[in-house]
Amino acid sequence: MSIKIRLARAGSKKRPFYRVVAADSRMPRDGRFIEKLGTYNPLLNKDDSNRVKLDLDKIKEWLSKGAQTTDRISRLLENLEVLPKKIRNNPIKAKPKKEAEEAAADEPKAEEAAAEKPKE
Q: Is the pTM of this model over 0.85?
């Protein structure tokens, strides 16, 4: 039986609220869990103290027993410096493609030519 520390969704439609739980990995997302470890409310501001409430002692206890964390819980625990930061692949999506770079390189040349042309 593998244990996961994960989010269980609560709240109503379009008003998410999550419980941080330790649960058997085979159970449904909102199904039976072993222990409630905290709460997460993504609708609150990031600097609000009630956004993430975790019982860190219980979480450390479950981690020492071999429980695995989901990606979102890992990120929350990394922000609280409970887990070491994981190096993630961050592709540069905003970098322009080859054609766009060439077009951008051609634009200054066109502007310079227009500036050099005397206006009558």
A: no
Residue 98: CA count within 13 A, CB half-sphere: 0
Burial group, residue 1, by CB count within 10 angstroms (0-12, 13-18, 19+): exposed
Contact 3, 35 (CB under 8 A): no
Q: Are 68 and 5 in contact (CB under 8 A)?
A: yes
Q: For 8-63, what is each residue's pLDDT tens digit?
A: 999 999 999 999 999 999 988 888 899 999 999 999 998 898 999 999 999 999 99
Domains of the chain by start residue, with CATH: 3-79 (3.30.1320.10)
Q: Position of tokens 């085979």?
A: 26
